[in-house]
């Protein structure tokens, strides 16, 4: 790819003063940012034009069909674990270089998506996560059960606004079509919650400190403090955003409409260390995924495992590798890596 040749190093500036603080001291904006401040989540309507979003959805279906296992988007009976690539019970496709498919980078690079994060962070110097894509199939008879898993994606011992998560919705998504559930206003009481409950419960095991699962005791606390769980509805091309402190999870569809989503999370380059950027560069060059943290705190694998054995189909590169624009290539963080003396 021509974009892999870096001809200049960009110095990442300090984060501008326009960054949202999400601590009750922000000004009012008169747009979706006010929803984010109040509720801990927001919907940015039409971040991607509807027709283009539907084109991305078509490519996402085509990717699932490309493995040759028998999945056909027009035949509901083929929504079967044996006829699909390895997708976990939450709907996430994590392997096969899928997070670097051309249509995924197309979504990440959309001006309406990038600009929304720029407004929150007060800078255009951003990096993006190499996060998963999500297939929320409507016909789940032959798929693993997706149980509620309320959680927050932030270390409880590191309070304050640290990360804004997002996903781009590609198909109509109503109240019964599966998708994101959020605990409205939970970000505002997050520190109080953890101070109250810390040391009084058996924590749900987690592979990273940047994940906390809500136990029955935690769920009761949220209810006692007046928090309501909301199913977020969206149209094709809408961008859903939420503060990582906001409790959330996803649910399966109960009607006939699939739910397709691309996770998108950006952060200022200034929040990443040089070591982070080098790790991110290695992940990009190997076409590996990350979590939602754009500083590549953890990187994944392209080796898909099915029933404890390597999947028959293995891909260490996307089916359709992306040719990145200059703006998209900056989102990899590579141009911000400083030359060693």
Automatic annotation (TrEMBL):
Residues 306-315 have a biased composition (Basic and acidic residues). Residues 293-315 are annotated as: Disordered. It comes from the Eukaryota. InterPro entries: Phytyl_CoA_dOase-like (IPR008775). Pfam families: PhyH. PANTHER family: PHYTANOYL-COA DIOXYGENASE, PHYTANOYL-COA DIOXYGENASE-RELATED-RELATED. This is Phytanoyl-CoA dioxygenase. The lineage of its organism: Eukaryota, Fungi, Dikarya, Ascomycota, Pezizomycotina.
